[in-house]
Design goal:
Shape: elongated
Number of domains: 2
CATH superfamily of the largest domain: Crotonobetainyl-coa:carnitine coa-transferase, domain 1
Largest sheet: 6 strands, parallel
Distance between the termini: 37 Å
Length: about 400
């Protein structure tokens, strides 16, 4: 028996480019939605990223797998007409143009809602659809700076550093995803669609949970701490003889266990380390003591000892090590698809496991315009009309 998917029968128009919007739509695709990626004639800009072969790149494939791809020039009357015709069978529309662009096409939510009251319409932008900066473009690097993430990333006293992954892009994508799924549930109850508006900057602010808590509760401005935690210690990367490991003794019980393992149970009685607040305040002195000991042994030595004592710890893997990790492999976090231009492509698998309706990542990203004729035929166009009005 074929396993059904969670979003079987749901159709999505993905009018997005680069990262945030495509990543959001790909999650819906993995969950079984029929996602139609609408690209301009030149294609999504990520098709021309490093490693591209023609109009196909590993980066594009990484956030567009499983979708059907069509080319529509939304600046043209024919493209706008076709888009509106596709909406008659669409449940969800996701777009990440700069605010005002879809309105210029006559395809914004306000222009479509009366005719399509059940439509769920999600906009992902740099700053949101309102406010003094709404008209600015959306870029992860800029949003990481504006949202404060770069002020708390990296080592103290060093130049600003961004988070290693495009966190505001991916965060906005996942916030939009959760809102879309909530809106689907609301529509099941009421029959009504709605408009969703989120942004990269808001994602960065919302993800700054500990940092905002520190600022609001203490009035102090959080600073970069390297790998250290803002409210727990020791909870960071620790130096060993041949590199670093992560160590998470994040409460009094674990700290006592750590001190016993390091043969210094008396540390728990010292006033500077009596509780977590004091350990954070005297973090530098505490870490110096710990590293004088751990620097005498290898990473493998300390990981084995910490794990045997039930103290949270782990290696700091590079990506070759990540994808060789038995746990990562056991969880199906590598999927492979056959791409007509790129060949066999590996990429991260779905991070969510569902017992009845598991996500599926079995198809590559579409070639530019690969499904234009197929999708337009479904919308009622004849082959002659497609040839006359649209690029093949």
């Amino acid at each position: 028996m074929t396993t059904r998917t969670a979003l079987e029968g749901i159709r999505v128009l993905d009018v997005t480019q680069v990262m945030a919007g495509p990543f959001c739509a790909m999650q819906l695709c993995d969950m079984g939605a029929d996602v139609i990626k609408v690209e301009p004639p030149a294609g999504d800009a990520t098709r021309r990223m490093a490693g591209a072969r023609g109009t196909d790149s590993p980066g594009f494939n990484a956030v567009n797998r499983g979708k059907r791809g069509i080319v529509l020039d939304l600046k043209s009357a024919a493209g706008q007409e076709a888009f509106r015709r596709l909406l008659s069978r669409t449940d969800i529309l996701i777009e990440n143009y700069r605010p005002g662009v879809m309105r210029g096409f006559g395809l914004d939510y306000a222009s479509l809602a009366d005719e399509h009251p059940a439509l769920i319409y999600a906009s992902i932008s740099g700053y949101g659809q309102t406010g003094p900066d709404a008209g600015k473009g959306g870029f992860d690097l800029i949003a990481q700076g504006v949202s404060g993430l770069m002020s708390v990333t990296g080592e103290p006293g060093r130049p600003p550093a961004k988070v290693g992954v495009p966190l505001t892009d991916l965060g906005a994508a996942l916030f939009a995803l959760s809102a879309v799924l909530a809106a689907l549930h609301h529509r099941t109850r009421t029959g009504a669609g709605q408009y969703i508006d989120t942004s990269l900057v808001e994602a960065g602010v919302a993800l700054s949970v500990w940092e905002s808590a520190q600022y609001f509760s203490e009035g102090t401005i959080p600073e970069a701490l390297g790998s250290a935690h803002r409210m727990w210690a020791p909870y960071q990367a620790i130096r060993c003889a041949d590199g670093y490991v992560t160590l998470g003794s994040a409460n009094d019980r674990l700290f006592r266990r750590l001190c016993a393992l390091l043969d210094h149970p008396e540390w728990t009685e010292e006033p500077e380390f009596a509780n977590d607040t004091l350990r954070v305040r005297h973090r530098a002195a505490l870490i110096d003591r710990i590293e004088r000991i751990t620097a005498e042994g290898t990473r493998d030595h300390w990981i084995a000892r910490f794990e045997a004592a039930g103290i949270p710890c782990g290696p700091i893997n590079n990506y070759e090590e990540v994808y060789a990790d038995p746990q990562v492999r056991a969880r199906g976090m590598i999927v492979e698809v056959e791409h007509p231009a790129l060949g066999r492509v590996r990429m991260p698998g779905p991070p969510v496991k569902m017992s009845a309706t598991p996500p599926v990542a079995s198809r590559p990203a579409p070639l530019l315009g690969q499904h234009t004729r197929e999708v337009l035929r479904e919308a009622g166009y004849s082959d002659a009309e497609i040839s006359e009005r649209f690029a093949s």
